[in-house]
Automatic annotation (TrEMBL):
<keyword id="KW-0496">Mitochondrion</keyword>
<keyword id="KW-0436">Ligase</keyword>
<keyword id="KW-0648">Protein biosynthesis</keyword>
<dbReference type="GO" id="GO:0006431">
    <property type="term" value="P:methionyl-tRNA aminoacylation"/>
</dbReference>
<feature type="domain" description="Methionyl/Leucyl tRNA synthetase">
    <location>
        <begin position="68"/>
        <end position="428"/>
    </location>
</feature>
<dbReference type="Pfam" id="PF09334">
    <property type="entry name" value="tRNA-synt_1g"/>
</dbReference>
<comment type="similarity">
    <text>Belongs to the class-I aminoacyl-tRNA synthetase family.</text>
</comment>
<keyword id="KW-0809">Transit peptide</keyword>
<dbReference type="InterPro" id="IPR033911">
    <property type="entry name" value="MetRS_core"/>
</dbReference>
<dbReference type="GO" id="GO:0004825">
    <property type="term" value="F:methionine-tRNA ligase activity"/>
</dbReference>
<protein>
    <recommendedName>
        <fullName>Methionine--tRNA ligase, mitochondrial</fullName>
        <ecNumber>6.1.1.10</ecNumber>
    </recommendedName>
</protein>
<keyword id="KW-0067">ATP-binding</keyword>
<dbReference type="GO" id="GO:0005759">
    <property type="term" value="C:mitochondrial matrix"/>
</dbReference>
<dbReference type="InterPro" id="IPR041872">
    <property type="entry name" value="Anticodon_Met"/>
</dbReference>
<dbReference type="InterPro" id="IPR023457">
    <property type="entry name" value="Met-tRNA_synth_2"/>
</dbReference>
<dbReference type="InterPro" id="IPR015413">
    <property type="entry name" value="Methionyl/Leucyl_tRNA_Synth"/>
</dbReference>
<dbReference type="InterPro" id="IPR014729">
    <property type="entry name" value="Rossmann-like_a/b/a_fold"/>
</dbReference>
Length: 610
């Protein structure tokens, strides 16, 4: 395809299929006997600053709470590119986060398969339109499987169930007097499948120097079109749309896109053509009661969200918690046309429309004609599934375009996943420091302030930062600012590396009782930090987080958001991991990548440990 609240909606129980394959890969030992000494720390006694445990977890949702997250359905005129994957990974991250919170979450994606552009592409390829669409749709499916996109619903607009939903939706609008037979005359972009007003077009020259008109939004060529078709009374919805947006300032995020839509609504809205003559467009849903007309591709495509929700039957439960993730190029269709259609049909607009910007290459928009389209299949094979996911979420900023290049990918992945996080795990679980391969005990007396304590002010700052991290990360996941969430985690990982480096546990004398207990305490704190990072990273890099948690001996039932209780021993509480055997050493957490060779061969992965 080409709101009323901020993300404070709680939903969904965990879907078991997300973890079944991963948990089969690594044995997690059972919990061992728990030991607890609370004689010196019944609360946070000894800490220079009291730590606020309210940040540690979010209350679980009730059984009735649902969450419905969608990507756009992707147009099958070409193979998937990096921007498609970014939309999918962004939605997948939020979906996984909601599942970890215990919400019942539905996540839909799919392909938009109707329209004149597809009809002509199939004709040029000498294929039946459905066969042509199926081939491209399968490419999207393979990409999503390869990149661990955990959708619950995959919809195609060629599906019979979707056709029935479109027919019902059309009939409801028509019965309400919102669709009428008329004549449309104006500019039309076949490339965008979009009708344009005179203010939305400009003069330009084509490659041969011929004068043409183009869309100001997309730059695609437009043509003057005049034909009899059906019109939707969009002009009647300017004020209702303004009332909806002003009453729900979080309906469109980020803020800059909300302001863009408000600005568009300062002008009167012309009625919208919602059909094409069947003689010109056969590949689409016929207008109910008029086989000479075909439903406009955008009306057809937008209804996919309702189809997945169960429309026209039992859809209210899911639709009331709908959130859309879209690219900025299709904002007008989702923030003006779609809410107007919904309001006309007596349905509420989506709770939130989350907009992201584009990925560029060398500062230029990706284009087949320019030859700078980034193939996500090739890149995920080169950098790994989690590697590409991490880069997109770490570098993608919703309200501004982001530039892609391979050198930047290598730099980010090596510095943050291989060296910083992977190096910390390797160091703290290495037999040289942890010969028993267990989660060592924590000594409250040695970590207390004052006489006998060895912890420093920097150590307290680390503990406070990690205690507050779940609240920070959760807030950023909620608002689809994953880059801020990953930045916060990365900052704490660096602090933890500094903590280990500062105390140099490898220099301690194991023969000395005090040094041995301090070494165990240092490792316990570091492993608790790593466990927290592993839990928080699950929505973004699920396979890497799984390997990390497996290595720490954290079982499948100990990985929910409610398990984010950092360093309970410091609060006089039992730690279920203390004394437990670590999981099997399955190798490096994330292999360091070498620079690309000049002949563009795949980078080798080094096997050196940190």
């Amino acid at each position: 395809m080409r709101n009323p609240c901020r993300f404070i909606i709680r939903n969904y129980s965990v879907v078991p299929r997300l973890s079944t394959r991963l948990f089969a890969q690594c044995h997690v030992p059972q919990a061992g006997p728990q030991r607890l000494d609370v004689g010196h720390m019944s609360t946070y006694q000894g800490y220079p600053h009291r730590l606020d445990v309210r940040h540690m977890s979010t209350p679980p949702p009730s059984d009735e709470e649902h969450f419905f997250i969608t990507t756009p359905i992707f147009y099958v005129n070409a193979s998937p590119h990096l921007g498609h994957l970014y939309s999918a990974v962004t939605a997948d991250c939020l979906h996984r986060y909601k599942l970890l919170q215990g919400f019942k979450s539905k996540f839909s994606t799919g392909t938009d398969e109707h329209g004149l552009k597809i009809q002509q592409a199939a004709e040029s390829a000498g294929k039946d339109p459905l066969i042509f669409c199926t081939d491209v749709s399968e490419r999207f499916k393979r990409l999503f499987v390869q990149c661990n996109i955990s959708y619950t619903d995959y919809i195609r607009t060629s599906d019979p169930v979707h056709r029935r939903a479109v027919e019902r939706f059309w009939t409801v609008l028509q019965d309400k007097g919102l669709i009428y037979k008329g004549s449309y005359e104006g500019w039309y972009s076949m490339q965008d499948e979009s009708f344009l007003t005179p203010s939305q077009v400009a003069d330009a020259l084509d490659s041969s120097g011929k004068d043409i008109k183009i869309s100001l939004d997309s730059g695609h060529k437009v043509e003057w079109m005049k034909e009899e078709n059906y019109m939707f009374r969009l002009s009647a919805f300017r004020r209702p749309l303004l009332a909806w947006l002003r009453g729900n300032p979080g309906a469109i995020q980020p803020e800059r896109f909300y302001q863009d839509v408000l600005q568009w609504l300062q002008e009167e809205l012309p009625d919208l053509s919602v059909s094409r003559q069947r003689s010109r467009l056969q590949w689409g849903v016929p207008v109910p009661g008029d086989p000479q007309q075909t439903v406009y591709v955008w009306l057809d495509a937008l209804v996919n969200y309702l189809t997945v929700a169960g429309y026209p039957d039992a859809h209210a439960q899911w639709w009331s918690s709908a959130h859309h993730v879209i690219g900025k190029d299709i904002l007008k269709f989702h923030a003006i046309y779609w809410p107007a259609f919904l309001l006309g049909a007596g349905l509420p607009p989506p709770r939130t429309i989350c907009v992201h910007s584009h990925w560029t290459v060398g500062g230029k928009k990706m284009s087949k004609s320019v030859g700078n389209v980034v193939d996500p299949v090739e890149k995920s094979g080169r950098f790994g599934t989690d590697g590409l996911r991490y880069f997109l979420l770490r570098q993608g900023v919703p309200d501004s375009d982001c530039d892609y290049n391979d050198a930047k990918v290598l730099k980010v992945l090596n510095a943050e996943l291989a060296d910083s996080l992977g190096g910390l795990l390797n160091r703290c679980t290495a037999p040289a420091l942890n010969p028993a391969q267990r989660y060592p005990p924590f000594c409250p007396e040695l970590f207390a302030a004052g006489s006998g304590g060895r912890a420093t002010a920097d150590d307290w700052r680390l503990l406070e930062a990690v205690h507050g991290l779940p609240a920070v990360v959760g807030r950023h996941y909620e608002t689809l600012h994953a880059y801020k969430a990953l930045e916060a985690v990365g900052g704490c990982v660096r602090l933890t590396n500094g903590f280990v480096q500062r105390h140099a546990p490898w220099k301690l004398d194991r023969g000395d009782e005090g040094d041995r207990r301090w070494l165990d305490t240092l490792l316990h704190v570091a492993l608790e930090c790593l466990r927290t990072y592993g839990l928080l990273l699950q929505p973004a890099v699920p396979e890497t987080a799984h390997r990390l948690l497996c290595r720490l001996g954290v079982g499948p039932g100990e990985r929910s958001w409610s398990a984010l209780s950092f360093l309970p021993r410091a609060r006089g509480m039992a730690c279920p991991f203390e004394g437990r055997a670590l999981g099997a050493d399955c190798g490096l957490l994330f292999s360091r990548l070498e620079s690309l060779d000049t002949d563009d061969r795949k980078p080798k992965r080094t096997l050196k440990r940190a």
